[in-house]
Design brief:
With 184 residues, this protein is an alpha+beta fold. The protein has one domain: Pnp Oxidase, Chain A (Roll). The chain contains four helices and eight strands. Strands 1, 2, 3, 4, 5, 6, 7 and 8 form an eight-stranded antiparallel β-sheet that branches. Strand 6 and strand 7 form a beta hairpin. The longest helix is centred in the last third of the chain and has 21 residues. The chain starts with a strand and ends in a 16-residue tail after the last helix.
Length: 184
């Protein structure tokens, strides 16, 4: 039922591009720390190469993924087929948070539509590609992407978003540095 692949082959990359939602999971090193699993959507994911992917990270209420990646780099991205034949794909790897001051920010931002809420990109060097059956994943009908986050970010403007990130996105819920001056 499960199959490991050497890399993201073109057919798999095309399947990934058709998915409308993906899930990102990370965890701190501490056994007492909180594991994080975040749903993502919109036109926010790209396969850059056979073992390289990136997604657009929007301003949000938390910063767990960034904090965990800065601490240990471990990440898994999961895709599920909610329509068509059943399938689950997992991309395990080492993630890097690419913020506006990073040398690759402009290069990665050119891969995506402009979004006022973009706070970073998460670049992943993939070290394991696998798929499994997904027989128990239910069918869901897609209606549309939500625009609430985009509208919220646009209404804030750059200065208010900067202030929001400075107050809400500095640390993870476990106190690990995520964004800002205290992040490595």
């Amino acid at each position: 039922m499960s199959q490991k692949h050497e890399h993201i082959h073109p057919e798999l990359a095309a399947w990934i591009a058709r998915q409308r939602v993906f899930f990102v999971a990370t965890a701190p090193l501490s056994a007492d720390g909180h594991i994080n699993n975040s749903p993502k959507g919109g036109d926010a994911f790209r396969v850059l190469g056979p073992l390289e992917v990136v997604y657009q990270d929007y301003t949000g209420s938390g910063a767990e993924t960034a904090a965990h990646l800065r601490e240990n780099g471990r990440i898994v991205i999961l895709f599920c087929a909610f329509e068509g034949p059943p399938k689950i794909v997992r991309l395990h790897g080492r993630g890097t948070v690419v913020t506006p001051g990073h040398e690759r920010f402009h290069e990665l931002s050119s891969q995506f539509p402009d979004n006022p809420g973009t706070r970073a990109f998460v670049h992943v060097a993939v070290n394991r590609v696998s798929d499994s059956c997904g027989y128990s994943v239910p069918f869901f009908d897609f209606r549309s992407h939500r625009d609430a986050l985009d509208r919220w970010a646009a209404s804030k403007g750059p200065k208010e978003l900067e202030t929001y990130r400075a107050t809400k996105n500095q640390n993870s819920i476990d106190g690990l540095p995520a964004f800002g001056s205290n992040a490595p």
